[in-house]
Design goal:
flat; about 60 residues
Length: about 60
């Protein structure tokens, strides 16, 4: 089964975001990104809450 264009752009965004976090040397956040995004979806977190959770991991 092939990925839809939306899934491809989401995967591309995920990789870009992970790359940006790594470039900024936010390695803990980069490693936790997938987990935090999954939690955000399942817990219906706002974007702000998800970002706060991600940054909290780094700090």
């Amino acid at each position: 089964m092939s990925a839809t264009p939306m899934q491809m752009s989401e995967a591309r965004r995920f990789q870009q975001l992970k790359g940006h976090l790594s470039y900024l040397r936010m390695n803990n956040a980069a490693e936790a990104l997938n987990r935090v995004l999954d939690q955000a979806r399942s817990e219906r977190l706002s974007v702000t809450a998800a970002l706060e959770r991600l940054l909290e991991i780094e700090v």
